[in-house]
Structures are given as structure tokens and as C-alpha cells.
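In this supplementary section we document a worked example of the pipeline. Step one takes a protein sequence of length 148 as its only input; no multiple sequence alignment statistics are reported here. Step two produces a three-dimensional model, which step three serialises into C-alpha cells for compact storage. The input and output of this example are shown verbatim.
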Amino acid sequence: MRKLARHLGAIFFVSSFAAVPGNAQSVAEEVLGEWELDPVGSMEDLDRMARWSSASDAEKEKLQASLERRANEMQLQITEDAVTLRSGQQEASFSCSTRYQSSSLILLGCSTGETPVTITVVRLTAERIKMLSSGTDDMDIFVWRKAP
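The serialised model returned by step three reads:
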């Protein structure tokens, strides 16, 4: 019970910090720029995700084929004040500001029109990141590598 209380306290601290105007920070330089979908990194990361750890080999093969197909279509760009996702001819751009930053993650407060969204950028390595979004549950399967 104490662990749960500490965990909830930490979440409250981070979320209250993120909600305070004026606490925006600059995005760490190493995550700025162009990123491309990394199907190999995505598959390596898959087993750490609860919803995929029990998936059948056939389901994982289907996902791998989908990731490899999308690798040539999907790009991500992170700037000081926006996140832009391109998939084929479609593009979605969100105004964002940094609300919290540590050595392994960045919380971005983003505007998608009417609904505020929190995007969490997780630094896996110096050349790989993944993103989580409070607005969708499908971003977590993608690992991104720094574009050359």
C-alpha cells in the first residue's frame, strides 16, 4: 500500500508540474530533428509490452510485416515547439511545449485543437526513442531511430 501511495504521489507531482504554466523547458537537443520508423527496434521492444508478450508467432509476424511496410512511409519530426508525424501523403502536426524532462524521458504538453494531449518521449538509446500518447494507445508499438 505504501508503494502505491508513493507511486501515486510521484504521478501527482509530475502531472501538477506539467500543468503549471511557465515551467516549459527546451527540448533536449538530442531528440530534436528527423526520426524514421525502426521496424527492427520496434520488434525488439515488443516483448516488454504486456499486451504483446503473449501474442502468437503468427500475430508477431503479421505486425513485423506491417512495420516493415510502414518504415518507408512514416517519419517523425520533433522541433522546439511541435511534433509532426508523416505517414505517406498524410501529415499531423501538434504544437507542443516541454513540461518535464529527465535523462530518460520528456513529457510534452501538446495541443490538437480542443483536447490537450500529453506525449511522452522515452529515450531508449542515443539513437532510438519511442513515444506514448494520452490521446491514443497505438503509438507505443513504434520505435524510432534518428534519421541520417
